[in-house]
Amino acid sequence: MYTTKTSLFWKFVVYAVLILGVAVFIIPFIYMLLTTFVDNAYTLPRPSEVFSVTPNLDNYETVWNRNNFFRYFLNSLLIAGVSMVGSLFLGALTAYAFARFQFPFKEFLFRMFLFTMMIPVVLAIVPQFTVISNLGLVNTYAGLWLLYIGGGVVGSTFFLRGFFETIPKELEDSIRIDGGGNWRIFWNIYLPLSKPALGTMAIFSFSGTWDEYFVALTIIKDEALRTLPIALMMFQGQHASNWAWIFAASIIALLPVVLIYIIFQKHFVKSGLSEGSMKG
Amino acid sequence: MASVKPELNQAPKYNQQPNPRSEGKKKAITKGIKQWGEVFPFIIIGLIGAVVFVIYPLIKGVIMSFQDYSIIPGAESPFVGLENYKEAFRDEQFKYAVRNTLLNTVVTVPINWFLGLVFAVLINMHFIKYKIAFRTLYYLPIITSWIVVAFLFRFLFADGESGLINFLLHTKLGLIDEPISWLQNQWTAMLVIWTFHIWKTVGWTVVIYLAALQGIPKELYEAASIDGANGLRLFRNVTIPLLGPVTIFVLINLVIGAFNIFPQVYFITNGGPIGQTEVLQSMIYKEAFNNFNFGYSSALGVMMGLTIFFVTWTQQKKIGNQRYF
Question: Residue B267: which of B281, B254, B255 has the closest Cα?
Fold first, then answer.
């Protein structure tokens, strides 16, 4: 049995480095949180002010009731929620097709999928807009959902296919003996066994659309239909110097994603996560 | 898509007397159609989605790059050959964008890779408790909003003594003589952008390496330690070689990520001061949506896409068919 003995000193050093790393990631968030407790922050609050605040929810209340913030929050929840469920379902369906079936041009199609993933998204925004415009879906959530779900299918297929291929084919036999077909195999075997991968994808999908700014800005024109990221940018434009408000709004905007992350965190697989790093 | 549907609707003609040579070919086609019939309900929606919202827009984008494109319905969009591409090389702004995009790649990829590997190895050490907690915290910046984190960085790097970074470096530590106006100068603004980029994305590298490290079978270490290897030698002779393929995967993705830098710049400096921190994607976006130069914007996008494609393609072979997904 191998054991590498590590002296107490080195253990201490390693822990110190890791905790330093955590501090670098966490302290900015804490500083942001403290700033939201500052009263009347019409100018940039001094660090000494920020460190001596007493927690209160005044700024949160102000922000929540101001500029239809609540409305935008619900809008974003609706958009990200539907997109997440749609993306998961469509991604799983398409990945299942690629993972379990043999058919002509399969690898060609898959390579084409891969190819499109390397191309910067901005190149496609203008033509995507014309497609939505031709469908008469500008300024509707349907247009936005189509773009998020349809545009995201390539990445989710790529992500889930690899995972589906690790599921042993023998598991299908019991369903086949019962006379079940491809749909039941998909529903009763592939989906339940892929919970970790689907959970990971749920995090990406939700946080991706929740935070999406550029496409939403081109598709949505109506003020009442705006999403949270757009509202945040506008809010920041109007109250440029009131950081307490801006961060109170920001923290409200962060909450759902952090919640989803914590809920699905258990299922977080090793996974490629290429989505996460690249498109934010 | 269009090529598939007619095939499916045409019933194979069995009544014809086939000649023996085309028999095999015909069988293959029939088999292919049957296979498509099976997979059809599962693949069709995804395929339509990808074709309509991804593949078609990309092709259309390439075509637009050769046009003086007008978005107004009915207006003409004359073809102008390579004019949009030539334009790029006369454009001062484009030089800045290319320079900054490359610089971002050269600066952030090595740092990101190194930090990611080190943190992953440390978290994976056998005596470390709360591995999952560390992983969760390191990954936290990845899932938070670009816009919010950009606000946060602008706030931390604010001018004067009230910015936390200036406060720490000047007032507390005395490392700098006077507070720095971080976002007002080209190079300090770039420094902020790079820091932002690394801070926001390094968790991804940590998570990938951590997964790879945990995938290395314990027996390999046991075997090596029986042979008398320990500590550093185990790391050098067992861990490093086994991480090879993951490293290539990580590097490719880091390069693509660094190349695709966009919200980092758009939300922090918006290209300023005077366009000196502009990068390719933010320039592409602004040319299209602020200046309505759709053709020119597309030409920039095509050039950028080709570069990324080239980099990925040449490296892809090294990964082979291994997938880390």
Answer: B281
* CA atoms of A7 and B64, how far apart (whole Å): 64
Residue A17, in any domain of the structure: yes
Instruction: Give the percent of chain B with pLDDT over 90.
Output: 31
Given a contact cutoff of 8 angstroms between Cβ atoms, the answer to whether B267 and B147 are in contact is yes
Task: Report the CATH number that the domain containing residue B216 is assigned in CATH.
Answer: 1.10.3720.10
Nearest to B58 among A123, A261, A277 (CB): A123
Residue B69 lies in a domain: no
Contact call for A103 and B38, based on CB within 8 A: yes
Q: Note whether A207 and A270 are same-domain residues.
A: yes
**B143-188 residue pLDDT tens:** 889 999 999 999 999 888 888 888 888 888 888 888 888 888 899 9
A184 and A105 together in one domain: yes
Q: Is residue B324 part of a domain?
A: no
Work out the angle at residue A50's Cα, subtended by the Cα atoms of residues A46 and A51, and round it to the nearest 5 degrees.
120
Instruction: Inspect the interface and report whether the beta carbons of A125 and B58 lie closer than 8 Å.
Output: no
Domain that holds residue B310: 83-319
CATH of the domain at A265: 1.10.3720.10
Q: Within an 8 Å CB–CB cutoff, is residue A32 touching chain B?
A: yes
Q: What value does the mean pLDDT of chain B take?
A: 83
Enter the pTM of the model: 0.83
Burial class (CB in 10 A: 0-12, 13-18, 19+), B151: buried
Q: What are A217-273's pLDDT values in tens digits? A: 989 988 889 999 999 998 888 877 788 888 999 999 999 888 888 877 766 654 444
Which of B35, B147, B254 would you mutate first to test chain A, the one with the most A CBs within 10 A? B147
ipTM: 0.83
Q: Is residue B76 part of a domain?
A: no
